[in-house]
Design a protein that fits this description.
Helix content is 82%, strand content 0%. It is mostly helical and 108 residues long. The chain has four helices and no strands. The longest helix is centred in the first third of the chain and has 30 residues. The protein has one domain.
Length: 108
């Protein structure tokens, strides 16, 4: 994953955002409602919110840099609000990043 590219940065932020969403839903929320520990939701929720905003910014940046159609940008946004969605979106981004890397590679 190349962090020098907009797709690489979007992939990293997407993986972090998706992980934080799963931690929020799978660990923090049960701790709050089953164990009476609301602090977990407060901390993980704050981190997830910040990562979500970063993901949306990175999505807009990548979409404008790569001239993505509105449909692809909307798919990325929808992926961010569905559990496991960013991981599925990442598979698409990985294929695009690999195709770009092959296109940029010098001919042998």
């Amino acid at each position: 994953m190349k962090l020098q590219t907009t797709i690489g940065r979007l992939r990293l932020i997407g993986l972090l955002e998706g992980t934080s969403f799963l931690v929020l839903l799978g660990i923090a929320m049960p701790l709050k409602y089953l164990a009476g520990q609301p602090l977990a939701v407060k901390l993980v929720g704050w981190a997830h919110g910040a990562l979500f905003m970063l993901f949306v910014l990175a999505l807009f940046h990548a979409a404008s840099d790569r001239d993505w159609p509105l449909k692809k940008m909307a798919a990325g946004f929808i992926a961010a609000v569905i559990p496991f969605g960013t991981f599925i979106f990442d598979a698409n981004l990985r294929r695009e990043a690999e195709a770009l890397a092959r296109a940029d590679a010098p001919a042998a």
